[in-house]
Structures are given as C-alpha cells and as structure tokens.
Amino acid sequence: MADRGRARNRRGGRVDGGGSTRARRPASARRRTGAAATETTRTRLRRGLAAKRASGAAKVLGMSTTRRAAVVAIVVCALAFTVAVPLRTYLSQRSEVREQEAQQAQLQQEVAQLQDRKNQLGDPAQIEAEARRRLRYVKPGETPYIVQLPEDQPAAPPQQTGPQEVPEGSWYENLWNQVSGG
C-alpha cells in the first residue's frame, strides 16, 4: 500500500529499486500537465483498484468465476424449491376457499328460499290450497271434477297377438329342465 503512487514494472516490482520513475520517462511525458494528465492518471488508478478488488474477492472466496456462478445457481435453485411447496399450498388453499365461499352463498340462498316456503306454509289458506292441488282434497258437499287431457293418459301397454304358451308342470320342474338342458 505504501507504493501506490510509484510506478511498477510488469512483474509488480518497483522500477529503479524503489526510486522515482521520472528519470526514465521521456521529457514529453514529464511535461504533461493540466486536466488531461490528471484524467488519465485517475482513470488508470481506478482501473487498477477495480482489478485489485475483483482479484481480492476471488482470492478471499478461493473460487474461480465458474465455481462462484455454480454456487449462486445452486443457492437460487434451493430458494426456488423452498418457496415452491408453500406457494403451491397457498394457491390450492385459496382455490378451496373460493369453492367453499361459493357453496356457502348457494346454501344461504337455499336457506332463504326454505324460510320463505316455511312462512307461506304458516298460513292456513296456503295449506288448504296445497292440499286441494296436490292431494285433491275437497270440502264436504263439493263435487270434484277431474279433466283428463289426451297427453295426461298413460300409454296402453302393447297387446300380444297369438296364443301364449302355458308352461307345463310346476316351476321347479321347468327350472330343472332348463338347467339340465332337457
């Protein structure tokens, strides 16, 4: 850290054994002054520091870039699997809640209809009308009339033409003959 401002050769050692590098630089390079010289020096220093930081992180972890990427991928997959099961449970429970709420609304509507029906049947006139309509009850002295329309009559069973065979013998004899094949 002490040699930050001093130049280094390609192998990382100091030039001139720790002395200044001004003697080796050409005169044109020594004369650079102003914003351009400062900008290039700053840019070089920033690049060098960024490279040192990146190489320092690799050294601290002791892994190459590929290995670090593999570890990150494994961690991401582990997190995905950790979140997947609770998420699936949450979504399935949410759909069950919706179904139960729909069923509850339907049952509440049915209860309301049954309450209305109960209130209607609490009236004696309604009970009398139901008995007349459904059970065809009449009051004493009334004459009931039933009008049957053609579509109300049940269809007549088809009649068999020709003589019917009457089995001879008793039922168990007929059964034995059918089973024995005789």
Automatic annotation (TrEMBL):
Pfam families in the record: DivIC
KW Electron transport (keyword) present: no
InterPro entries to which the protein is assigned, alphabetical: FtsL/DivIC
Biased amino acid composition, Basic residues: 22-33
Coiled-coil stretches noted in the UniProt entry, renumbered to this chain: 90-117
Region (Disordered): 1-42, 148-173
Transmembrane segments: 69-91
UniProt KW keywords: Coiled coil, Membrane, Transmembrane, Transmembrane helix
Protein name: Septum formation initiator
Organism: Amycolatopsis ultiminotia
